[in-house]
Amino acid sequence: MIFNSAIISNNAFYSAELASLLAPVGGQMESKWKLCYNAIANNWDLRLFHKNCDNKNHTVTIIERKPYIFGGYTDIPWGNYQFPFIYLQ
Description:
Structural class: alpha+beta
Number of strands: 2
Order of helices and strands: HHEE
Number of helices: 2
Helix content: 25-40%
């Protein structure tokens, strides 16, 4: 798999680990992931995030908060909210 990520592209270990985790959803074919949003490059503009990422299936989020790198995967499209948001005040 090919990842266009400023956070993990230069780290073979992270790229391999992510490819391994995503293998069940990527199938047997070579997958190429397309970057839809970069918070720093896009100046943290949430409107641009939603313009570029809403209604996209199978997205990966990679976050770096030094010294940690973490993220997640979802097959539910961004912007397709079918559940209530609940939060603590």
